[in-house]
Amino acid sequence: MFDLVIKNATLPDGRTGVDVAVQDERIAAVEPGITAEAGQTIDADGLLLSPPFVDPHFHMDATLSLGLPRMNVSGTLLEGIALWGELRPTLTTEALIDRALRYCDLAVSKGLLAVRSHVDVSDPRLVTVEAMLEVRDRVAPYLDLQLVAFPQDGYYRKTGVEEALSRALDMGVEIVGGIPHFERTMEDGARSVEALCRIAADRGLMVDMHCDETDDPMSRHVETLAAQTVRFGLQGRVAGSHLTSMHSMDNYYVSKLLPLMAEAQMAAIPNPLINMMLQGRHDTYPKRRGLTRIPQMMEMGIPVGLGQDCVMDPWYSMGTGDLLDVAHMAVHATQLGSIEDKRAMFDAVTVNSARIMGLEGYGLDVGCHADMVLLQARDTAEAIRLRPNRLKVIRRGKVIAETPVERSRLSLQGRPEVLNPASYAPRIAV
């Protein structure tokens, strides 16, 4: 007897009519026609059953702080950083925890059960670190939270940050971050990449750097990050986030850069919503939009995971916690419109990001954690188009969030009385 059986599901790889059985918080069977009894049975009715969504780039210490101490009038990255600098001295552990827990509630409702959050270590009080470590412990039963020691003001640019970052790692933050393009000089940026990779190698940690988040095509710290990854033997443990300068680089240089990243087994984490909002602010027209070269990276075999980055904070006044919003923007901005492309973008907010984060037991194979999301959509392309309701969010075999099926009632003579948005897509042979 199983604890849970989900009947007649469609899986992200296109298989249909599949049953998934759960025993002792793990997936015990994935096959059609499971007849064994179960403590609970859910009829998927042919809808899409996915592993949970994964956000590999977020700032949970800043989330839901919109309007504190004032609004970002220009809407630029630099004013956002300045605003955060004004807010930072007033931060309290209690307020940080409250906002982060509220965001995690929202995340769970969207089927988002794993987040990597950068935590600012520029304030030597490290109240951000204390708060996020407590949040990590409190949400552990229902959400996997990874923390990155992030020197928002630069590793060398501000006095005391080197020591504060080390203390944050000693306190239990598990990933080394950086922001080389925000150092005072290109030389300091390159020096910071080397120093931070050395720390990660010495401590046996992963690296995730904000890298070249600028429109300047000469901001090329990702090249240094790739080289230091190989030098320190960090292959498979390093991610470059944002990488927006690559949007403005010449094609010849990129033809050299992408193989270097692939050789270093680096991952890339673009953040389409924020990148599209913040980049190109000095342009008139034509106006660059700043999103990095996602299709070319995927062609090179570089793992690409898409991040939410911000929700209602000094940098971004919008955001829903829905990774399908992120994938939806990526499809448009990269012109990846085929069914295969959209499946790849769905992977970028699920399996790719789980791989980048090194999540154990993630997926829909036998033996994986019984973490799943049932969506009101027939396949991955439709999930990105509709950004549908999460009918069931399951963690370790238990339903922890659910949303009713979306239906509209019509009063139109001679037309159907009920409209289900998931039933309107043409059936296309893949």
Automatic annotation (TrEMBL):
* Gene Ontology molecular function terms on file: cytosine deaminase activity; isoguanine deaminase activity; metal ion binding
- The UniProt record lists the Amidohydrolase domain at 40-400
One of the GO biological process terms: cytosine catabolic process
What protein name does the entry list?
A: Cytosine deaminase
What keywords are annotated for this sequence in UniProt? Answer: Hydrolase, Metal-binding
Q: What does the record give as EC number?
A: 3.5.4.1
Q: Which CDD domains does this chain map to?
A: Bact_CD
Q: What is the enzyme's class at the highest EC level?
A: hydrolase
Membrane spanning residue stretches: none
Database matches in SUPFAM superfamilies: Composite domain of metallo-dependent hydrolases, Metallo-dependent hydrolases
